[in-house]
Amino acid sequence: MKKKYQTFTFLLAPGTTPGIYEQSIELDRAFHAVTGVTVYETSNGGVSAYKIGLQDDAGHVLHTLTHKKDWLPGENVSLNERYKDLEYAIRGNKLEVQLRTAAVLTLALELDIVFRLEKNADQD
Fold first, then answer.
1. This prediction's pTM
2. CB–CB of 78/17 below 8 Å?
3. Which of 18, 77, 105, 119 is such that its CA lies 20 to 30 A from the CA of 31?
């Protein structure tokens, strides 16, 4: 099995008002499946909480909006355990990353969302 890790940066500017924000990502079509996802918080926007969700561009929910603590791996988590399992076939679809804030951001909110992509070694 060949693996690739594709990173997407989600950025909201200071002063962003409360609401649900979506950004889409196109996954590498040379790979056939997403098998995991994790999130790293680069900047917290000056807020203590927000929610993250994931759906495909057809509106199928892959992960409902949940508190950031459900997504962010702890400092003592091993590399192999940092990824939430996710089984999603890449068919040229885009994924929509959702972020819901409940307060005005006083700083930038920046997240690196890393998708683990896989394909069989004989599928080059």
1. 0.91
2. no
3. 77
Show the tokens assigned to 25.
């990502």
Q: Give me the CATH number covering residue 69.
A: 2.60.120.220
- Residue 78's domain comprises 2-123
* Tens of pLDDT, residues 113-122: 999 999 987 7
- pLDDT tens profile 81-104: 899 999 999 988 899 999 999 999
What's the total number of domains in the chain? Answer: 1
Strand runs labelled E in the chain: 2-12, 19-26, 33-44, 50-56, 61-67, 84-89, 94-101, 109-119
Q: Which of 72, 86, 20, 62 is nearest to 42 (CA)?
A: 72
Angle (CA) 102-106-108 rounded to 5° is 95
